[in-house]
Amino acid sequence: MAKDHDQLTRALFPEASSRVAVVQLDKTWRAVLERHHYPPAIQTVLGELMAAGALLASTIKNDGRLKLEIRGEGPLTLVAIECGANGDMRGLARWQEPAEAGGDLQALTGGGLLVMTTETAAGKRYQGIVSLDGDDVATVLERYFRDSEQLPTRLWFSTNDQRACGFLLQQLPGEREADSWQRLQMLTATITEEELLAQPAEELLHRLYHQESLNLLQSQNFQFNCSCSLQRVTNVLISLGRQEMEETLEQEGQVKVDCEFCNQVYLFDETAIERLFGAPDQQTLH
Question: Quick one: CATH architecture of 7-224?
Answer without folding.
Answer: 3-Layer(bab) Sandwich (3.55)
